[in-house]
Amino acid sequence: MQTIAVSLESRSYNISIVHELATFANFYAHLYPKRPRCVVLADSNTAALAEQLLPFLPESHLLTVPAGESSKSLAVAGDLYSQLARLRVDRATPLIAVGGGVVGDLGGFLAATFNRGLPLLMVPTSLLSMVDSSVGGKVGINLPEGKNLVGAFYQPKGVWINTQFLDHLPEREYCSGLAEVVKYGVILDATFFVWLEQNIDAILARDPAAVEHLIAVSCRCKADVVEQDEREETGLRMVLNYGHTFAHAFESLGAIRVGCTEKPLQRG
Ligand code: GLY
Predict the structure, then answer these.
(1) Ligand 1: which of 241, 244, 248, 266 to mutate, judged by most atoms within 8 Å of the beta carbon?
(2) CB atoms within 10 A of CB 198
(3) Please, what sign has the CA dihedral across residues 21, 23, 28, 31?
(4) How far apart are CA 155 and CA 11, in angstroms?
(5) Which residues is 40 bridged to in the sheet?
(6) Residue nearest to atom 3 of ligand 1 (CA)
(7) Residue 241 C-alpha to ligand 1 middle, in angstroms?
(8) Which of 15, 28, 106, 188 has the CB geometry, 3.0–4.6 Å to 4, for a possible disulfide?
(9) Ligand 1, residues at Cβ distance < 6 Å
(10) How does pLDDT run across 228-251, given as a tens digit for each residue?
(11) How far apart are CA 231 and CA 21, in angstroms?
């Protein structure tokens, strides 16, 4: 187990990197000793993983949305607001986002805005969300006019990364996440880039020690940038968008080529 601290004064939090499901009980109880009731948000791909957490939560309500970028919409957010209202969710009710970038961005947006703010916990399930989108507080939804056009900087209270969740991640999604990992080597940490080159076989084989190391280094790199430029005001944080501009263009072209409106891959 490793812990990465993100130091942001009153908005500080820890990223816990673990290998065992049962550690979630301690993670939650440590943050919320009274173990309040909570809302768990997942999508149709991650609902089964979210259900594994429910036995550790005394009272929880599982809300699910369809998998895919189209769930990051005002319509889906509006429906979820209504569900939260009917559940009488208040500011003492944590929202736990269990999923990849879409669930994290959408769940974070709901937490940032419903009732003027709910405590947010991130449980990323894809490699991309573990090393990028679950850390740093960028949350939001898409408009027809553009991606992530409505959102906020809203830090989670904690990030719980269970590397076991990667076991069943499709190869394409795993490699998509690795692109974000390589990004940190290119933009911030040459030693890490060399380590990635030297350990590529173990990384592709999802060797547990290699996977833990690459997640920990990536999260530390991201935390270092976020600590210095939380709200992307100095320009430093924009370094984390390295490759995203090209990727968004390729994704849009790919979506047009295959005649669909969905983005083929998630981006942080
Ligand atoms: N994914 C880029 C950022 O968090 O700033």
Answers:
(1) 241
(2) 10
(3) negative
(4) 7
(5) 62, 96
(6) 240
(7) 6
(8) 15
(9) 132, 136, 138, 237, 240-241, 268
(10) 999 999 999 999 999 887 777 777
(11) 33
